Every structure is written in C-alpha cells, then in structure tokens.
Amino acid sequence: MTSYFFSFEGPDGAGKTTIISMVESFLRDKGWDVVATREPGGIEIAEKIRDIILNPAHKVMDGRTEALLYAAARRQHLVEKVIPALKDGKIVLCDRFIDSSLAYQGFARGLGIDEVLSINQFAIEGYFPTLTLYFDIDPKIGLERIYGNEKREINRLDLESLSFHENVRKGYLQLVERFPERIVLLDASKSVADVFADAISILMGNLEKNMP
Ligand SMILES: Nc1ncnc2c1ncn2[C@@H]1O[C@H](COP(=O)(O)OP(=O)(O)OP(=O)(O)O)[C@@H](O)[C@H]1O
Ligand SMILES: Cc1cn([C@H]2C[C@H](O)[C@@H](COP(=O)(O)O)O2)c(=O)[nH]c1=O
Description:
Enzyme class: transferase
Keywords: ATP-binding, Kinase, Nucleotide biosynthesis, Nucleotide-binding, Transferase
Largest sheet: 5 strands, parallel
Family: Belongs to the thymidylate kinase family.
Strand content: 5-15%
GO biological process, one term: dTTP biosynthetic process
CATH superfamily: P-loop containing nucleotide triphosphate hydrolases
Number of domains: 1
Bound molecules: adenosine-5'-triphosphate, the ligand Cc1cn([C@H]2C[C@H](O)[C@@H](COP(=O)(O)O)O2)c(=O)[nH]c1=O
GO molecular function, one term: dTMP kinase activity
Strand order of the largest sheet: 2-3-1-4-5
C-alpha cells in the first residue's frame, strides 16, 4: 500500500498550523482519509512530554535533555498514532517532525545536525516523511505573527533570542540543500491564500505521482 506521510516544517509563526487545517479540510472534501497531528504531542504521553519541554519555567533544561525528550515524544507518537494511520492507508499531515530537531537542537542549539540525526534514527527506525513542506520565513515576521495572536501561548522556545530563531532558519536551509528529494521550500511570507495554493499544488502533485 502506498503511504503518504507529509510533514510541515518551519520557524515559529511560519503558518504551518493554519495551512495544515486548510489542507486537511481540502483533502477530506476530496474523499481522502486524513489524520492531522502535531509534534511534540498528538497523543497523551507525548503531550505530557511537550508540557515539560515547553514550560517557560524550565529554564535550566540542558540541550541534550531537550533533544532526547523531543526524540522520546516522537517515538511514542510515531508508534501509537502515525504508523497505525499509515498502515490503514490514511494520509498523515504532521505539524513538525525530525527536521525540527535537526534545525532547532542540531543547528540552533549547536548539538550538531549529524548527532541529533543519529539519536532520531534510533527513534524513527526509517520512518522518514514521504514529503516535507518547509515554510520559509524571516523569523522577525514569524515572531511578530505569534506575538500578534493573543490566543497563542508563548512557550520556552518562543522566548529564545532572535539570533537563535535566525539560526533555526539557517539550519532548515541547510536541510533543504541536504535532502532535496524530500524537502520542498515554500515562501511563507505570502498571503494565507497563496501559501495554501502552493501547498496544495505540491501535495496533489505528490499524491497523483504516487497513486497506484
Ligand atoms: N500567510 C500568513 N500571513 C499572515 N499571517 C499568517 C499567515 N499564516 C498564518 N498567519 C498567522 O500567524 C500566526 C501563526 O500562525 P500558525 O500558528 O499557523 O503558525 P505556526 O507555523 O504553526 O507556528 P508555531 O510553529 O510557532 O506554532 C497566526 O495568528 C496566524 O493566523
Ligand atoms: C518537534 C520539535 C519542536 N521543536 C520546537 C519548535 C517550536 O518552538 C516548539 C513547538 O511549538 P509549536 O507551537 O507546536 O510549533 O518546539 C524543537 O525544538 N524540536 C523538535 O523536535
């Protein structure tokens, strides 16, 4: 059975969650069986790990502890939710996956992309996304969007410096170069309607290409 595991990546405030919800409705209307989920989280255990990682009070958290907690949440979410959905032939839309760890912990935290890739390979056992949409945005704009949204809670990672968020973007751009067959860059500074149109065109192209 062909499986469709699409991840959505990008700096904070790039617009991933907004577009995933639009893509989910669009694909459902077309008759596809879709599971939209997020990392860290998506299931009870991983949501609990999320609360620990993102609690602004946990200022002393060590970078390697952070990387391991993200990998642990990823593992549980993968086995409990993503793999069963893929086995049932569903399309999985995942708000962040392994590339977040590579860009945030590997590059921006300075732990090393290859080191963080290695602990995550243990966690994911080869379950890389079929396709990853990378929402590219100047972090200044992303952070302005977040701080402009009163409903959005500000978490421990949001509170990092602007230079940390700029390094996150640099990390992602390295990943786009390193995995060109998997990661596609979208200009996330465009309007919601335009970003959605770009995302649908890429995703439908992938679905049609891989249809049995
Ligand atoms: N293309 C866009 N243009 C302007 N504002 C946008 C756009 N896309 C999303 N927004 C707004 O920006 C804010 C952040 O959007 P969203 O939550 O979708 O981003 P995100 O990438 O999921 O962020 P995070 O990863 O930090 O949770 C929201 O208030 C949303 O309405
Ligand atoms: C999966 C993952 C996430 N992060 C960071 C990225 C964001 O700052 C937060 C998650 O918040 P969101 O509102 O759900 O985007 O966590 C990370 O640093 N490493 C990861 O692997």
